[in-house]
Structures
1.
Amino acid sequence: MTEVRPTDAGVRPASSSRRRGRIGERNRRRILTAAERVFARRGYQGATLDEIAKESMLPKANLLYYFKSKQALYHAVVSDILEAWLAALGEISVDDDPADALTGYVERKMALSRERPEGSRVFAMELITGAPVIGEYLRGALRDWVERQGAVFRVWQRRGMMADLSPEHVFFAIWAMTQTYADFSPQVTAVLGVDRLEEADYRLAVGTVTAIILRGLGLPPRRSGRVAAAPSG
């Protein structure tokens, strides 16, 4: 009798499945990165799957294997950007030190503006046009996230650990201040009289934005501003 091996029966070894999974994830990330750059340059209407395929150096068929349409790919790009921003703070706890939590958040948000400026611009264009693609995500997942973090803020406020200011508007201020270094970088470099922002410029920006947020909330500074590594995602 012929021995029936797993592969003979149509079952691939686990190592082969894991390898395909890793390749698939690398391709998916490669496509998202390329799409982020193209959408930043062209906007949603101007971008084409052909240009994104060329940017990613993958066949167009590969794009459509992972993302069924340009809209699906665009939604994935914008959602990926937003999830990276939210991950920069994580899920804070009432047992955390508010100054440490907010200092780290500003640092990591600024790092994302430095490392993924195209992503920030894509997100800004989506919002400027009325959030036609991710409006439901904003009203759902983002709103839920802000409510969870806001509940922690309110505990800190009841304990007298920070000024009684609207958590929602604190987040709006942090997002606006940190993302301006990506969305309006030509204005920033023009005013500073430089061709591009260097690490020292970002370090000064982080320290300034952190001081504004902490002092506004009546919190003492915890660490000097520095450029932190952005979370992977």
Note: The radius of gyration is 22 Å.
2.
Amino acid sequence: MIDELDAAQQRVRELEIELALRHARDDASRLQRKLGRIATLATLDDIAVVTHEWALVDGRVAGHVLVVSDDVLSCALERCEVWDATVEVALQAPWIDGEAREPYHSAYANVLSAVTQDLCKAQAAQRATDLEARWTPATAAHRYKRPFAEEGR
């Protein structure tokens, strides 16, 4: 009977911890929605390196655990359908619908656009520096004469 009592008490402790975890995740979800954002998702690291928790419904992504409805989150937690993945990987998985996927797709596209612009600017600056190094004023004056310039002036 003592072993049975210990097992029952252990099960009570496990259930209390699970309930506390559920409440903490629900609170985090509400607070995150109040802030009006999911996560920053502003850099390449945010979308391609940092993993996020995603709620799944029947094996399809329903959204970030901090944004999905309480019912969807509860169902995902009960079925152990919470998945850790980067935004990049999550966008390649099947979603419950396009509306749920859209904010992450837009954030991903915005980050890629900004990174591409930064790379193009850096490339243009490097080309300008390379051209300046090749065509210093002394080099240009030595190789080329100004047209219609009078001799002796």
Note: The chain has one domain: 2-142.
3.
Amino acid sequence: MVTVASPIRAAVLERVPHGFFGRTGGVSTGLYAGLNVGLGSDDDDAAVRANRAAAVEAVAPGTCLLTPYQIHSARCVTVREPFAERPEADALVTDRTGLALGVVTADCAPVLLADVAANVVGAAHAGWKGALGGVTDATIAAMIALGAQAERIVAAVGPCIARTSYEVDDTFRRRFEDADRDNERFFADARGGHHRFDLEGYVVHRLATAGVTRVAALGLDTYPDDQRFFSYRRATHRGEPGYGRQIAIIAPAG
């Protein structure tokens, strides 16, 4: 039997089955030790699938877990039934009970959204490219197309790399300032020619700008805590040959 730690939950989503997972529990070993759910990793495929099954059972027992083939885009797909081949996208929405939506991350921001009255939910993977491109905007628009209302949508931003751990260069910063000069507030000066970027704060800003009035930012940094979370940047800095992924899951209320 695969064990998982209790998922991290957000109070704004308390009426909806959901959870953000780290690496605690699971059956993966070695470099991927813990609850690695990354189908694209070099981990044992059977272990990854067992970990994914255990995670969805901990959040929404008996549902079918669906995750996209993530490409760091702003593309959102509306799901009405299980799919055999994962669509290339970075967000999914649904209003169908029996389905659970998930996104995997390893420093990028997982965003879970719900309109309880419409029984519409969404899950988005917001790395910097997707966040800047508008993946949360696309998710909200797709939810509205299913009957949700922006002012009723609540959202939570799960574990992701924090400003203190996310150093970027001038070129990176200019991308955001070229899109909106006010984006300079999400950067803090670091060593010469470098800055620290607040991904979580930027994602919260994009959600609020799109009309979501209740957003929970969990404030959990994936980079420094190697016992609790996987981190792409940490693995890169350590020269490790691979890295695991954690998952965030949401499902319409039954």
Note: The chain has one domain: 11-162+198-250.
